[in-house]
Design a protein that fits this description.
345 residues, Immunoglobulin-like, 5-stranded antiparallel beta sheet, Ferric Hydroxamate Uptake Protein, Chain A, domain 1
Length: 345
Amino acid sequence: MSFALRVLGQLAVAAAILMAPSAAAARQAACPPDTTTGTVALEGTVVDKDTSIPLQGAGVSARWLDGKGRAVERSTNTDRAGEFRFCGAPASIAIDVQATWFGERSAPRSLTGGSGPERVVLEVASPHLVVAGRVREVPGGGPLAAAAVRVGRGPEQLSSADGAFRFEKIPPGLHEVTVERIGFATVRDSVEIEFGTRVDLDIRLAAQAVPLEPITIVVRSLVLERTGFYKREGRGLGTFITRQDIEARTPVTSSDLLRRVPGVRLVRGRFSEQIAIGRGNCPYRFIIDGARINAGFSIDEMPPNWFEGLEVYQGPSQVPMEFAAGPAEPNASCGLIVIWTRNRR
């Protein structure tokens, strides 16, 4: 695209912005003051106390006393921009407003409405998660330093010499990620950050604005990361099943997770339970959250939604040293299934 075309495109965007009504005007049109009943719109934003990042989905409550002294309470949730609005708030009565977010509360605010919309900013000391990654150049994949990375509306950070960046105070929720560098096409994408996960971003910038997948999101369970699950998976021995795999398969019973695993055969036990059998009709051993389980255990004794991850090893030659059976342990020559549960923190 030529420079002239780029300028024309920018002018067109600017004209569109100038012609569009302001956000404040749009909110007031949607929730106008009513002089006959003496009500106004109560509006505001809920933000993270440390980073000022807007918090989507925060609960907001407003309380006041009506003309007869009866308590009135309204509640709502913030939108993607962290905004909330109550219509019909009394214009001359004290209103107490407070926000909640993942168990944390903002300081209560008390205000009295005037003739127009009242706005308030509520700050919540939200829990924080880590967002890290690298910025690379395409083609070639080499690290790209001095790229400005921003998550949500928080402060930007420049990538280091090896393209790395790390944000340690990002609240959970949906955030826009923006990456800019002079001479490269700007990349914008969104990422969902949840509790119990670590998000690593692989961001690639092109010197020309060519269509490409800008961000590869790798979601890792903190439970499995702490237990060494991913390191063992990288060795290439055994079969590994993550929570994402479990949710994708939607198993009815936990034994359904083992039906496609090489080297595992399911047979009925004395009480019709499913028993995992390996080579030579050798029953699999089980370790659950580091504890060795007695022989005869059936995986169906635990529902599928309890699992954070499973490791299946067909025989002693695959079993890592930390899980090796002792000489006196029953079925020491059999395969092993290691289970990590979701409540292990």
